[in-house]
């Protein structure tokens, strides 16, 4: 039955094909929708966890790169000088202080921002201003293909008015 539903058969078509009451079809489909939502929620949670783990790895690598980019650069220097005994080579070490590569900090900042967005931790000014205007969540059971087509093309208010 669910196979027919996902292939866009109407409740009436499913009912007549299977020889069961349309109300029974609706009840079975409600149970199926609840299962789909639960499965989708778990899948999303797993996906978010996986993406957060990848962001953690990127941030860790960026911090390691940042730390390395701050280490003094050491160069071996060979200085050749002319002396009465002939050319003489002095070996030495030259240290160059490093301030750190800003690209690593940019990567860290971007990674933190992405993680916060993924976890819903970002502060959106427009959400606060329009909390009173937040959309109403309504579950609608669409029984026919015609209703589905109509619902796709009109707003929720227009749909309520059309349904009376």
* Secondary-structure element order, N to C: HHHEEHHHH
Number of strands: 2
Low-confidence stretches: none
Spatial strand arrangement across the major sheet:
1-2
Number of helices: 7
Please estimate the helix content. Answer: 55-70%
Gyration radius over CA = 33 Å
Helix and strand composition category? alpha+beta
Tags for this model:
7 helices, 2 strands, alpha+beta, about 160 residues, single chain, two-stranded antiparallel ribbon, about 15% strand, about 60% helix
SSE map:
Blueprint: H1 2-6, H2 11-18, H3 22-70, E1 73-83, E2 86-96, H4 102-119, H5 125-129, H6 145-153, H7 156-163
Antiparallel strand pairs: 1-2
Helix pairs in contact: 2-3, 3-4
In short:
The chain is of the alpha+beta class and 164 residues long.
Describe it for me?
The chain has 164 residues and is α+β, with helices and mostly antiparallel strands. The chain is 62% helix and 13% strand. It has helices at residues 2-6, 11-18, 22-70, 102-119, 125-129, 145-153, 156-163; strands at residues 73-83, 86-96. It has a two-stranded antiparallel ribbon. A hairpin with a 2-residue loop joins strand 1 and strand 2. The longest helix has 49 residues, at 22-70. The radius of gyration is 33 Å and the shape is rod-shaped. It starts with a helix and ends with a helix. The mean pLDDT is 81.
């Amino acid at each position: 039955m669910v196979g027919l539903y996902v292939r866009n058969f109407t409740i009436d078509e499913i009912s007549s094909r299977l020889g069961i009451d349309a109300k029974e079809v609706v009840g079975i489909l409600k149970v199926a929708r609840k299962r789909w939502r639960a499965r989708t929620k778990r899948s999303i949670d797993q996906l978010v966890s996986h993406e957060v783990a990848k962001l953690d790895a990127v941030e860790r690598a960026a911090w390691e790169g940042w730390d390395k980019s701050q280490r003094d650069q050491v160069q071996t220097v060979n200085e050749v000088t002319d002396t009465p005994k002939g050319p003489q080579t002095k070996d030495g070490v030259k240290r160059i202080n490093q301030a750190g590569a800003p690209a690593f900090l940019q990567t860290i900042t971007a990674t933190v921002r992405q993680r916060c967005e993924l976890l819903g931790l970002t502060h959106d000014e427009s959400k606060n201003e329009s909390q009173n205007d937040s959309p109403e969540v309504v579950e609608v059971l669409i029984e026919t293909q015609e209703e589905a087509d109509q619902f796709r093309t009109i707003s929720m208010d227009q749909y309520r008015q059309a349904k009376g």
